[in-house]
Design goal:
binds adenosine-5'-monophosphate-propyl ester, Rossmann fold, nine-stranded mixed beta sheet, five-stranded parallel beta sheet, alpha/beta, single chain, GMP Synthetase, Chain A, domain 3
């Protein structure tokens, strides 16, 4: 198999504290990382305590935990202030609901400091928090709250209409973060209550295996599934943030991911805060100029983003980069989709920095296969298994395959941040495992040096702009459109977004296949599900390829689209 040995990018002196790394990584066991936490001596577990209060009660008291900036706000919060604000949030939640340990609390709002207070406050109260990306529309919000029987949600006045409270009998309270919110039996004015609340709060102590975060994510079949993480994930998040993100005391760290996705919680909140680092949070939409300006203004040193973002920056041209001082950047990382070698090359050219690819999933809860500062990078490879993680390529029966064979990318189960259940769906959870192996759904191969090379998804899951979309969810929504009788959805390769969503639809009698109808269908999905789930391309077909049992054959659609052989068609109807 063609590895790109000749293009290896060596370790750069000064990039990484190799001696430190080798000391901790040698014979490393996850238990070694436990000692740092307060619970190791007190026996009292709570991830928000370890991320916030532990530092607020130390020499880091007046160190900035969060810088926040968007078009209207520019704020900074020290660890001490974070402790007070998260205590206030916990008090507001507790005083205005029956929320208690283990209850599900959703957070559905764009990035703002309040999102972080609420999320960490909810954790201090012992609830399991479910962050929702702000683009979700009513149907998507309903599915997630209904499945998890959420007791409360925190949202904004702009998003309130998308919370179908009347259809969610278990939903007791809606906390609204806005100005002069009109309170009712159900609605609580979050900001007003925050002002009145005490900044003292008795953190609710938990067990290491109690739930912390519930992230809904998509597979190729069925509704989105609730991936539950536990408190103990903190062990891996602390240690990998140190090794992989290379966080040090003086760093200014910027993770561009929204907390609605796992990167935005595991490495947008926990990884940095468990290490007592300083993070930048940038609100608002992506704009090239704003991003470069933020790096310059805050002196960002460690930057964690995604291939689509890098490709968009690339597309904006290199001339722009010269207008900003980006010289503080020390360590740059990427996640979520294949990182093309061209992008790595661009990073070297324009930032004079290596871009370190990292591979993991919502289900893994933390870094699994990565390029870290102390290793040579092979552009196009995701890197090697991090210490404490055993990764392999296995066949469909769980046999480990030799180097350079393509197969299922699998991980030996039992790492700290691994999901502990799929909410309400034991069967689905079990389906991930073959014996001791967690099977990721990605195909890959490993070379002789232990570097993993991503080849594709085994299933039909779509990764568009780094966001994971299940074709089934989009197809179900399409079928609700009055004109559509059949729908099949695939990921179509795209030079900027990795993949875009393409829908093939067949129409009911009497509907004309027009451009207006395409636009109407696109808007229908956008409004009913989410903007990022709306098909960018729609193609009308008289009929879609189906199995005899009526299942749409996405693989045939994909083959048509890509001009590839369609393979075995023996199960296809007529
Ligand atoms: O297909 C892989 C892709 O993203 C999937 C996981 O998506 P999600 O759960 O949303 O988590 C994304 C961020 C942690 C994987 O099964 N993926 C993730 N990282 C990479 C990747 N594909 C290629 N290269 C990566 N570095």
């Amino acid at each position: 198999m063609a590895t790109m040995e000749k293009n290896i990018i060596p370790v750069r002196e000064g990039d990484f504290n190799l001696a430190d790394y080798e000391k901790t990584a040698k014979d490393f066991k996850w238990e070694d990382a436990e000692r740092e936490f307060d619970w190791y001596t007190t026996g009292k577990v709570n991830i928000a305590h370890e991320a916030v209060d532990r530092h607020a009660d130390s020499y880091r008291k007046n160190k900035v935990a969060l810088y926040y900036r968007d078009a209207n706000r520019s704020e900074a919060y020290t660890y001490d202030q974070m402790k007070r604000m998260t205590n206030k949030a916990a008090n507001v939640l507790k005083a205005n609901s029956t929320l208690e340990k283990g209850d599900r609390l959703f957070i559905f709002m764009p990035r703002s400091p309040e999102l972080y207070f609420a999320l960490l406050g909810g954790l201090k109260l012992g609830t399991i928090v479910g962050p929702l990306f702000e683009a979700f529309m009513e149907g998507a919000v309903y599915d997630r709250l209904d499945d998890s029987e959420a007791k409360a949600i925190i949202t904004t006045p702009e998003l309130l209409d998308r919370v179908p409270a009347d259809r969610l009998p278990k939903l007791e309270k809606i906390f609204v973060v806005g100005e002069n919110v009109e309170e009712t039996d159900k609605i609580v004015d979050f900001n007003k209550r925050m002002k009145e609340a005490s900044h003292h709060f008795e953190t609710v102590w938990l067990d290491k295996e109690d739930g912390s975060v519930l992230h809904y994510t998509s597979g190729s079949t069925g509704r989105p599934k609730g991936v539950m993480h536990v408190q103990y994930a903190m062990v891996q998040q602390l240690q990998t943030a140190r090794w992989v993100l290379d966080l040090k005391e003086e760093d200014i760290y910027w993770c561009t991911a929204d907390p609605g996705w796992v990167t935005g919680t595991a490495y947008g909140i926990f990884g940095p805060m468990l290490n007592g680092a300083t993070s930048l949070i940038l609100g608002g939409r992506f704009r090239t100029e704003d991003w470069y300006q933020a790096i310059e203004d805050y002196g960002v040193t460690v930057w964690y983003s995604a291939p689509t973002a890098f490709r968009m920056l690339m597309g904006a041209g290199n001339a722009l980069i010269n207008e900003y001082d980006l010289s503080t950047l020390r360590h740059v990382l990427s996640v979520g989709e294949p990182l093309n070698p061209e992008v790595v090359k661009w990073g070297l050219e324009v930032f004079d920095r290596r871009i370190h690819d990292t591979w993991w999933m919502t289900e893994t809860g933390g870094h699994m296969i990565c390029n870290y500062g102390s290793m040579p990078i092979k552009p196009g490879s995701m890197g090697k298994a991090v210490p404490g993680i055993e990764a392999a390529i296995v066949d469909d029966r769980g046999n480990v395959l030799p180097p350079n064979s393509m197969g299922n990318l699998a991980l030996r189960k039992g790492w700290p941040a691994m999901m502990r259940k799929i909410w309400n769906n034991l069967e689905k959870y079990d389906s991930y495992f073959i014996g001791d192996w967690y099977v990721s759904g990605d195909s890959a191969y490993m070379d002789e040096d232990g570097y993993f090379w991503f080849q594709g998804r085994v299933d039909d899951v779509i990764m568009t702009s780094g966001e994971r979309v299940g074709p089934f969810e989009v197809e179900s929504k399409l079928l609700e459109h009055p004109a559509i009788v059949e729908a099949g959805v695939i990921g179509k390769p795209d030079p900027v977004r990795g993949e875009i969503i393409k829908a093939f639809v067949a129409l009911h009698e009497g509907y004309e296949p027009t451009d207006e109808l395409k636009e109407d269908i696109r808007q229908f999905v956008k409004k009913g599900l989410a903007a990022h789930a709306a098909p960018r391309e729609i193609e009308f077909k008289d009929k879609l390829p189906k199995t005899r049992s009526g299942k749409i054959m996405r693989r045939v659609l994909k083959a048509w689209e890509l001009d590839l052989p369609t393979g075995d068609l023996s199960t296809m109807e007529d």
